[in-house]
Amino acid sequence: MESRTLSLRDGMFKTHVEVGGDGEPLLFLHGSGGLRRGGYLDDLAATFTLYAPEHPGFGASEGIEHIDDIIDLALYYHDLMDELGLESAHIVGHSLGGMLAAELAAICPHRVRRLVLANPVGLWRDDEPVLDFFTLSPQQLLPYIVHDTDAEAVKEAFAPPETAEEQMDAMYQRLQSFSAAGKFLWPIPDKGLKRRIHRIQSPTLILWGESDRLVSPSYAEDFRTLIQDSQVVIMRECAHMPMLEKREEFVSLVSEFLNDGS
Asked: How far apart (Å, rounded) are the C-alpha atoms in residues 189 and 108?
């Protein structure tokens, strides 16, 4: 993977993007915890030309002060696609990135070839509210987002920082990411998607971990009902982080679905 920094809107935004692979373009939109680099990105880049940006206000990307709401963020991503020379692309979004991917597809349907929503937020059920995770420590949050805290893949992905410097950096990155995510998810992640989601025309795959305690799997059927050409796959022994917990299965499901329309 190659790291790039792009300047958008005459320098208003500086965007860090990981790019790699060769094939049909795939835009990966990360969740509230930021872009978690891992083997799943390399796996997807083996089949597609993968673009994995950090949202404004996350990681090395700047310009969150110019974004007021989720619609602003979706429009910003259309600008980013223009800058990358992407008239259209497959889009995979996880959690907050799933909400954003759905907004992108609703606002400008022709730019999204095929859509994958992995444990997305964006809808709301009073009987099963999305977890208010902003006040939880990393240790408190982990059982809500993974199926097995002792699994080797989980231990590797969520290994605690070893040095004091790494601990301080991890705390800063977490604070930065959650501060930015709060702009789109707080106090609840219902920002009107339900009024626009009917505009999505792309074939859509909805993936959900059966053990997700952050966003209940019951939301999968809500998304399926609201998106005309969509299907649901519930992933076993998996929670909110399928690309880390079940890397091979996640990559296989995504790749097969995206290639199905080729």
From this structure: 21
Phi-psi region of 49 (alpha: psi -120 to 50; beta: other; left: phi over 0): beta
Cβ-based burial of 136 (10 A; exposed 0-12, middle 13-18, buried ≥19): middle
Domain 2-259 class?
A: alpha beta
Distance of CA 179 to the CA centre of its chain: 16
How far apart (Å, rounded) are the C-alpha atoms in residues 68 and 70? 7
DSSP annotation string for 171-237: HHHHHHHHHHHHHHHSS-S-SSGGGTGGG--S-EEEEEETT-SSS-THHHHHHHHHSSSEEEEEETT
Strands (E) across 44-84 are located at: 49-53
pLDDT score for 170: 87
Residue 183 amino acid letter: K
Structural contact between residues 52 and 17, judged by C-beta atoms closer than 8 angstroms: yes
Q: What is the pLDDT of residue 38?
A: 79
How far are the Cα atoms of 132, 165, 171 from residue 137, in angstroms, in the given order?
Answer: 12, 19, 10
* Segments in the chain below pLDDT 50: none
Burial class (CB in 10 A: 0-12, 13-18, 19+), 249: middle
CA distance 33 to 31: 6
For the chain, what is the largest distance between any 2 Cα atoms, rounded to a whole number of angstroms? 50
pTM reported for the whole predicted model: 0.96
Instruction: Give Cα separations from 112 to 14, 16, 95, 127 (angstroms).
Output: 23, 21, 18, 32
